[in-house]
Design a protein that fits this description.
There is one protein chain. This protein has 113 residues and is of the alpha+beta class. Helix content is 15%, strand content 33%.
Amino acid sequence: MEDNSNPREGKLDSKYYTPTIDELVLGLQLDYKDPTGKLRVKYLDREDIESLGWEARTKEYVHYTKGIYDLFHYSKENVIKIYAQKELMVLILDKCKIKNKSELKKLLKQLGI
């Protein structure tokens, strides 16, 4: 039976996760080793997004802006949505699962943001 529970809920160490082998790519920020020696990566959070030049627009840190772009971060699902506002049009640039800062940096580079 597949476990569909949220990986962040109910865990003391819910800010971090153990990356899978395919997530281990050049540039991945490994944050620490846990007591068992496993490598750990921090889930994407407000500090990470703001460190990439985005400005928080809500107290809950769900909505961020940077120039003509809007980024919405849904941390429980590890999902972000990025929109571009041009005149009277709103373009959806991407909606995807992003677990950590390294993945977001890569996506932003691919989108030219």
